[in-house]
Amino acid sequence: MMKLKEVQNIMNVFLLATILAVFAAFLSVTQSMGFGLRTPLIGGIFTGLMVGDVNLGFEIGATTTLMSIGFYTYGGATIPNYVVGAIFGVVAAAKTGDSTIGLTIAVTLALLMTQMDILRRASATIFQHLADGALAKNNIRTFELWTLGGMIPKILADGLPVFIGVLLADNLTVLAEFSSSVKWFTDGLAIVGKALPAVGFALLLTYMNIKSFWPFMILGYVLFAYIGVPTVGLALVGAAAGFLFTVKKGAQ
Predict the structure, then answer these.
(1) In whole angstroms, what separates CA 221 from the centre of its chain?
(2) CA-CA distance, 114 to 247, in Å (whole number)?
(3) Among 190, 162, 177, which residue's Cα sits nearest to residue 46?
(4) Which of 145, 73, 151 minimizes the C-alpha distance to 114?
(5) Nearest C-alpha neighbor of 197 from the set 41, 61, 105, 65
(6) pLDDT tens-digit series, residues 30-85
(7) Distance between CA 150 and CA 169 in Å, rounded?
(8) Residues 6+ away with beta carbon under 8 Å from 139
């Protein structure tokens, strides 16, 4: 028979898995409502709060947020799910005591979650076709229900993997130990992890009108690379410069 302490540990893990799964599903719903809460940073901080290490959650959440910059589902593209990756990464880091292993897990599972995104989109079409059929019969109530039902795959695509993954958190540790013992695997993921923020910034720059605003880009680069102004300082300088530029342009 299991000891009382073992039962309590199982219940604690089950409760943690339930809370994180519900939170992941909640973020998916808020994204569809346009609130913009579904970010790796928020997922990481909340998970850090749940495991008792907010700093760890902030570290992994912030790093995965940098990796996700510039990635978006333009044209229906499938991108890594860094929100779920951040949640798993914080859990793994909390269990192993190593944030590097947590980031390795975060990147690995964020990439694997692209398969869930494909499955989610494919299954959502079932609800769309049912809604179309109800609308063809002028059954508005049923049409609304099937349309709202299309949220079910989206909720399950994030909530279910988080719930199962946290319950099997020991396997995350096994994966982390494997990645640590296989140098080529760890080095490859480290390179990917360092390259993704650069790719994100590069994609972000392609959306900006650099030809018209290149002086601001050079100013920011000089302030950071040569003077060493921190990120908050750069943000304040950018906000002030943008405000002055907008006011001057509006006056003209």
Answers:
(1) 27
(2) 43
(3) 162
(4) 73
(5) 65
(6) 887 778 788 999 999 999 999 988 999 999 998 898 888 767 666 556 788 899 99
(7) 29
(8) none
Report CA 231 to chain centroid distance, whole Å. Answer: 21
CA distances from residue 70 to 32, 119, 195, 208, 248 in whole angstroms, order as listed: 19, 23, 13, 11, 29
The helix (run of H) or strand (run of E) holding residue 13 is helix 4-32
Which residue's entry shows tokens 């940098």? 66
Residue 103: helix, strand or coil by DSSP?
A: helix
**Long-range pairs for 185-194 at CB < 8 Å and ≥24 separation?**
186/104, 189/104, 189/107, 189/108, 190/104, 192/107, 193/63, 193/67, 193/103, 193/104, 193/107
Residue type, 200: G
| Domain chopping of the chain, boundaries | 4-207, 209-252
> Of residues 213 and 9, which shows the higher confidence score?
213
Is 44 in contact with 60 (CB distance < 8 Å)? yes
Least confident of 80-84, 176-180, 208-212: 176-180
Mean pLDDT of the chain: 81
Please choose, from the candidates 78, 110, 79, the residue with its C-alpha nearest in 3D space to the C-alpha of residue 92: 110
- Check: CB of residue 119 under 8 Å from CB of residue 197: no
Token pair of 108, please? 């690995």
What pLDDT sits at residue 179? 55
Looking at residues 186-214, what average pLDDT do you find? 69
Separation between Cα atoms, residue 58 and residue 47, nearest integer Å: 9
